[in-house]
Amino acid sequence: SLVVLFGATAGAYGAKLGSDERELILLVWQVVDLHSKKVGTLHKSLVKADNLDLSDQCREVSGLTPEGLGKAEPLDRVLQQFSQLVSSDLKVLGRSSYTLCSDGQLLIRQVLHPETSKKNFLLSDCFYSFYDLRKEFHTCYPSSAAVKDQTIKTMAEYLGLGTDEAEEDFGVWQVKTMVAIIFSMLSEGCNHVFTEPETVKYKYETGPCSKSETVDSETVIRARGLPWQSSDQDIARFFKGLNIAKGGVALCLNSQGRRNGEALVRFVNSEQRDLALERHKHHMGSRYIEVYKATGEEFLKIAGGTSNEVAQFLSKENQVIIRMRGLPFTATQEDVLGFLGPECPVTGGKEGLLFVKYPDGRPTGDAFVLFSCEEYAQNALKKHKEILGKRYIELFRSTAAEVQQVLNRYMSTPLIPTLPTPIIPVIPPPYTIATGSIRDCVRLRGLPYTAGIDDILEFMGDATGDIKPHGVHMVLNQQGRPSGDAFIQMKSADKAFMVAQKCHKKTMKDRYVEVFQCSGEEMNFVLMGGTLNRSGLSPPPCKLPCLSPPAYAAFQTAAVIPAEAAALYQPQALLPTTRTPQASAAAPPAVTYYPAQAAQLYMNYTAYYPSPPVSPTTVGYIAAPPGAVAAAATATHTPILPQPGALVRMQGLPYNTGMKEILSFFQGYQYAPDDYNGLIQLSDQARSVLQAPKEWVCL
What we know:
Elements: E1 2-9, E2 24-33, E3 38-39, E4 43-46, H1 56-62, H2 66-70, H3 75-93, E5 99-102, H4 106-118, E6 129-132, H5 133-140, H6 152-159, H7 172-185, E7 198-199, E8 209-210, E9 220-224, H8 232-238, E10 244-253, E11 259-267, H9 270-277, E12 282-284, E13 287-293, H10 296-303, E14 304-305, H11 308-313, E15 320-325, H12 333-340, E16 353-357, E17 363-371, H13 374-381, E18 386-388, E19 391-397, H14 400-411, E20 441-445, H15 453-460, E21 467-476, E22 482-490, H16 493-503, E23 506-508, E24 511-518, H17 520-527, E25 531-533, E26 536-538, H18 564-569, H19 581-585, H20 596-599, H21 626-634, E27 648-650, H22 659-665, E28 679-681, H23 684-690, E29 696-698
Parallel strand pairs: 1-5, 5-6, 8-14
Antiparallel strand pairs: 1-2, 2-3, 2-4, 6-7, 9-11, 9-13, 10-11, 12-13, 15-17, 15-19, 16-17, 18-19, 20-22, 20-24, 21-22, 23-24, 25-26, 27-29, 28-29
Helix pairs in contact: 6-7
């Protein structure tokens, strides 16, 4: 038996049914016995919507009014009546089972399923399987119009049936005509058989996705504007009624590894994808969600993975995945299981845990956990921001695609990167920071943490022309982040005085900045880790009597790549071998390099000077044209390594080690007389080549 079903909403009608997110206001149905070709009673039921404001099209087509709908029953009761009346009609016809048959897929997929999902009540099983009369008609009559162009009226006209809609009420004519079309398809000339109904998935199935898979771009959409805490199940609920492919929800992460409010969703076919696009600007809670087309390549980039460990972890299907963030680096599997406790057992015990690690095996502080049911996952989420060790732990719902994406992000950086392209020397001669008691410098205090060199130059205004070359020095904290301070070397003490008077408490990015006149000596104290305040100078921790050089020239080569050629292209030069004056004379030249974007304008103001214990290694590169490399090689510059002495390579340093700790470590030994230039921190590229976590080279 078939139950022919027709419905209408308070908004759009026809091909746009359900696209405007309006509620159902009318259901009309009739039971058809396919064997005896008998029909049951035709039923028409109005549905009371929460919003009775009818669109003009709805009023014109249906003839319904808000007053009439106000006396109707709500949707949940109408659906209960539907089930009861269908059962009664089936008994009269001597039948027990039935399948729905609707005019197209919109009523079932785009209206009933989304609306009941939002109103938090379940549809009966009969709404998860139905026949699309348009597809069945096209199968029976291949010469008829394409499925997407079919309507009840065009199908009736093709068969020569009466099409006078004015004779019947809205909805009644549609159901009677659909029944007549079905009987025509069952006639001896056609003998059509209804065998393959459309299905709606009961729930979203999770699962891994391999980068080797082929994903059809006609099945993928991008959803934008999602709440940051939304999970794959929330997204599947937003697309309720449409069939999402297994593991087809991929939440996108930003550069910090946090969700950015976007997701890529893969459907089982292009028809489902097209229906999903009709949900553009539908709501998830109070937020509207934008839906756009996407490509299979974009989906694989986010959701695809190659790790066997991840594939094994995700091989347990229909599991709830929780992401843990902020774990202590020393946390073990036993610690995590103990943190979760017996009220939320992990699937498979230790096998249900996946720690995220860097390529060298160091932990990142992230982990994924599998739970067998929603109850256990909810118990785990209640532990959000509880303490493990000395750290609070964040817990979020996650997805299989997010597991792949996080692992791909952390594991994509190779231990030994490829060599960079040749680089162009911009300003060959080395430079130094001026010292002495002449107050030809200014200190900026209270800078926005997002302020850069260009912001400071704009802040200085006309005084920019009075800044010495390489005269802007940003002060970084021990974590390598901006401290809010900067020093600027002016061409004279008078210029510094004028700038301090003009720019003091001037606004930069909604913050006022204090500007003080100071000397080169005071600037060097701060750059070396000391403090400068109203009570005077506090020397840096590493300024010990036996180590104090006459002037702090530690940053003489701050913007210079220390022994770049030796570090990157000739790593053997960094081994602890004795250096003779003859060997030192052949050392590679000191060349200054600048970021490409800064070299165009303020190339003289791009040297960053962090305060210890952070190493001054912030360097940019410019890709060199082929002819420029030879010209740079033939230039003569001052060697950066002193002539006498020997190299000592230090391994196994703590990651927060700075210059002052190394100086204290070598207290009492003579090294690089009267200069700190003998202390060189290896760049990330040189360190990667040497396969060491963190090293310094001392002369």
